[in-house]
Amino acid sequence: MKKAKGLVFFVIALLILGLAYTAFFGVYTWYGATENTIIRGVKSLLTGIDLGQTAQVIPTPEADDETETTAENLTTDRDIIEGRLSNLGYTSLDLEVDVTNNQIVLTLPLTGDYEVYQIKSDLESVCGKGYLTVRNGDDTDDNGSPTGDIIVSSDDVLGALAGRTTSDQEPAIQVVLDDDGTSALYSATYQMSDDTLSIWMDDTELTAYTIDEAISNGRVVITNDSLTMDDASAMAYKINLGPMSFGFTYDNIVELSSASASNLQNILLVIGCALALICILLILAYRLSGVIISLALILESAFSVIMFTSYFPVFSPKYVTISGVFGMVLLGLITVSLGIWQAERIKHGFSDKTSFDTTIKGGLKGMSAAAADGFIVVGITAFFTIAAFGTSNYHLDWFQSILEWMNVVPGGYSIYPLAFILLYGLLIDMLVVLLVQRAMTNTLSSINAFKKPFLFGGKKDVVL
Amino acid sequence: MSYYKKAKLCAVICAAIVVIAAVLVLTIGLPEKAPFSDSTVLTVKCADIPFDYSALDTELATATDLPYTVAAGQEITGEYEAASVTFDGTGFTSVNAQDLVSTLGASYSVLSFNTTTGRDAGGLIMFLVFIGVTTLLIAGIYLAFRYGLKTALSSFVPALAAVGGALITLIAIGGGISYSLATAVIGSLAIALFFSALAFGQARELHESKHVREHDEVADATGAALMQKNIKIGIAAVILFGTTAALGFILSITALIDTAFPLLAGTLIGLFGAQFCAVPLCMNWQVDADTAAIKKANTKKPAKKPAKKPAKKPAKKSSKAPAKGAKTPAKKPVKKPDKKSDSKPVGTKSKIKK
Question: ipTM of this complex > 0.85?
């Protein structure tokens, strides 16, 4: 039984090394010249605009718009574009307003294998005005613009929710109207008999219905055959952001590589070397305890990478910015600190001349509460940071609304990776330190061959 | 020097760091850096021939004194080559841009020229203040719940000093209001609170152990126990942040330098501040509270029941009250029958009967 317990350490160690290998190097297969990703590694990390290749676009308000171009309008529209792009997964971007030329300077991150059509499609979807209209009929003019009378518009919308229809369970968006919109819709549909009611986003028809009874609940549902759940969520989010003052156009997309581009892998490699140096020093200082801390550090580092690569291709990866790199470094430091604490406690215990097993248990016992306290206080900081700096489509929208009500203006998305890795990384780190590291120490110390204080950081002459 | 005197000295140093940081921020001020500063973005298009970046660099050096960065690139479909030049500030005009491009040759033209307004730095500052206040409030409540109010308050000293230290370092290396500032400040605050919580845990454990019981002994023992660990943690922090800063120099990524050094300063202040300041400080306050409680008990008791119990109990209790900074008579490490009931967590309210 004891032998089996001892073997557990090696099983854990192998699992950690296996996970780390796949997390760092990924698993890729080649089919001819095409590389298929099975598991994403470091080379699949998405690089933020401060570390990698970018695309520069200059959106300009559409010429035929009658709305006056002011700095305020441009700033509001900048924020809406930022929100729309963040909803498309661009959590690292930069948008600056040029009030002299009435333009916005947009910098987007580019991945190594980007597709031009994808970039253009994303830009098309965010540059439109985003004005929602519910119209009588679904006729269009020669340009494809809707000509039916507007019954309700974005101005009458309270909010939108993505979900599924009750009848067919099809993805759908439910648009909730305010009192004015509700009564306008009721009045219009009351007079309809087998007439068409259509819903448009700018010049794109989203859905059309034949109306045979009045709509009195102030809700309209958008659904069509091609709508997926993701599309529905994105559309609901876009409606909730509200329309922009103008639609925007752009002429060029310029791909840029700054002097510091493509260095994320190099930065992570060098930081990995620094962590390796720390591991060597810890192994020299604490012997087997150092090996355990090193394995915990490898595991934590692997999870740090996994959080950004999302490991399996079915999950969306996230952009790594400089603040994200520092989040990784801070988590590494926290793991090292707790490892040193545990190793020192065991080392110190040997000087009390208690039995080997008691010393190991004593070293592990009592540390959990302090470590948990540490994790909780850092978690509190990370929570408020993610609430404050989180992207608009983050689950803490309600919290940002409170902040906006308090007139606290958003600081930007670049800090999001730091908050993200601190909050979620801490939860993982807690498991690594309080569970895996302890399990490794327990199991390794149960092997008779290793029951020597010296191997766990004690002095050579200590005999228990 | 007694541990409490060291703690007081450390608290003064921490307070001085905060004051210096505040004075520096208010007097010298933090310059706004991208994306919070106004800047000019010039994109130069080059058709037909390969882009001559060295010529662009030469012309830029003569055309302006403003700091600038050049990013090489091309139209996304590869139709032509282009370079984007970002100037810090708005001194470079569209006329300058046209002049610059004309000197480069006929194949070159201005693709776009934009003068951008920096983001609202006040928003970032408000957010940082919000994060700081709410974190200290909620983390303070949590620590107060776990260790007592005074202990929680004492954790604020190294936490604020860590933030102050990060700010001073940022000013010293020429940083400004940027995302690097936010990262360094948030990271320093978080890590300082983390080390404080660990230190309180260590102090509580030593307090509950059989060897040390009184506050000053706990402070001594905690300090000694923490020192062994903190030196190693400090070395690890220097290696990690030092490497990151070195990378910043090698790869010319200013944000890495602007974050690594302040974060290192904040981490070290938080680490040793918790050891030298937070733990002994909370115990010092606790000693004062205990002494006050005992004094109160001694003055009240005879008045309450003068006849029944003459002087025996108060005298016994008062002998337990430790003088500030003085060692109490050494207790033999005799095992008590009920260890738990005898122990008292650090910072919790005194159980001395009134």
Answer: no
Q: Distance between CA atoms of A145 and A130, rounded to whole angstroms?
A: 14
A159 vs B: CB within 8 A: no
Q: A4 to chain B, minimum CA–CA distance in Å? A: 33
Phi-psi region of A366 (alpha: psi -120 to 50; beta: other; left: phi over 0): left
The average pLDDT across A411-435 equals: 82
What is the pLDDT at residue B282? Answer: 67
Does CATH number 3.40.50.12780 belong to domain A132-243? no
Q: For A247-268, how does the pLDDT look when each residue is reduced to its tens digit (9 = 90+)?
A: 899 988 999 886 554 578 888 9
Interface of A with B in 103-122 (CB under 8 A): 103, 105, 116, 119
Choosing among B90, B243, B258, which should be mutated to test the A contact, i.e. which has the most A CBs within 10 A?
A: B243
CATH class of the domain at A53-128+249-256 = alpha beta
Give the CATH number of domain B39-116; options: 3.30.565.10, 3.40.50.620, 3.40.718.10, 3.30.70.260.
3.30.70.260
Cβ of B117 within 8 Å of Cβ of A267? The answer is no
State whether residue B143 sits within 8 Å of chain A by CB: yes
Number of A/B CB contacts below 8 angstroms equals 262
pTM value > 0.90: no
pLDDT in tens, B278-302: 676 666 666 666 677 777 777 765 5
Q: Tell me whether residues A385 and B76 touch, CB distance under 8 A.
A: no
Outline which parts of chain B fall under CATH 3.30.70.260: 39-116
For the beta carbon of residue B59, count every other beta carbon within 10 angstroms.
18
Share the mean pLDDT of chain B.
78
Please list every residue in chain B whose beta carbon sits closer than 8 Å to the beta carbon of residue A341.
198, 229
Every domain of chain B with CATH number 1.20.1640.10 lies at 3-33+120-287
CATH superfamily, domain B3-33+120-287, is Multidrug efflux transporter AcrB transmembrane domain (1.20.1640.10)
